[in-house]
What we know:
Blueprint (H helix, E strand, L loop, with lengths): L2 H26 L7 E5 L5 H9 L4 E4 L2 H11 L5 E4 L8 H7 E7 L2 H18 L4 E6 L40 H9 L4 E7 L8 H18 L5 E3 L6 H6 L4 E4 L1 H4 L7
Parallel strand pairs: 1-2, 1-8, 2-3, 3-4, 4-5, 5-6, 6-7
The structure holds pyridoxal-5'-phosphate.
Amino acid sequence: MNTTDSRTAQLADNLAFVTERIRRAASAAGRADAPALIVVSKFHPAADVRVLRSLGVADVGENRDQEAAAKAAEVADPALRWHFIGQLQSNKATSVVRYAHSVHSVDRPGLVAALGRAMAAQQDVDGRAALECFIQVDLSRSGGGHPGGAHGGEGQGGALPRGAGPGGRGGAAPSAVPALADAVAGTPGLSLAGVMAVAPLGSDPSAAFALLAGISAALVRDHPGATGISAGMSGDLEQAIAAGATHLRVGSDILGPRPAVL
Length: 262
Ligand SMILES: *Cc1c(COP(=O)(O)O)cnc(C)c1O
């Protein structure tokens, strides 16, 4: 086999293994509906995305605009949906809406406004469909409110998005979710898809995802269409499925190891 063939075989194996894990977890949870699988291709080349596409993958995830924009242009497949899952600075909104089907990391009012402006301009150009937005929740801040919370706009003026410090995994405080959801729902060009979270490091993912399920249930009472729950990665997808995840974001168990995230 040549290099491409062996990479294809490897990705096919990994994909089959993860798909089987998903099927078993959904069945164990008594779920008839299998959650959607988003394959996180960050740090891996566009060639891998093409291979994934040939294996039937339609949804890929990226966490940096520069890398995602280049890869989306290189792969140039209109049937592929790109999901932006990383911390997003407002000044990248214009770029992201050119290729992204969804943003899973909406975590502050300033970003909602920036995405709304970017979408208005982009829809004038190509009439694209609404951008699906998940509100990212910081489950390590579940004590109800947090000094500075999600009302801090663009943060303290530093170069890093709020929450992106060492160990920080981003997201709005749970108490900020209703107002952010109303802002997304009230912005033309944006569609409120639901909530997203990363289980806090060193905590029990089942407890974290149960908390997220409760936040989702409250959100759906106000926004009946916003039933999405984006949760579950390579290491905790079973727990996420048990807690009702509708979208899984799986990287390393399909594509293999990548350099440590900066
Ligand atoms: C990288 C990343 C993932 C995928 O993580 P794996 O452990 O490689 O499956 C999921 N969600 C987010 C937000 C990520 O940044």
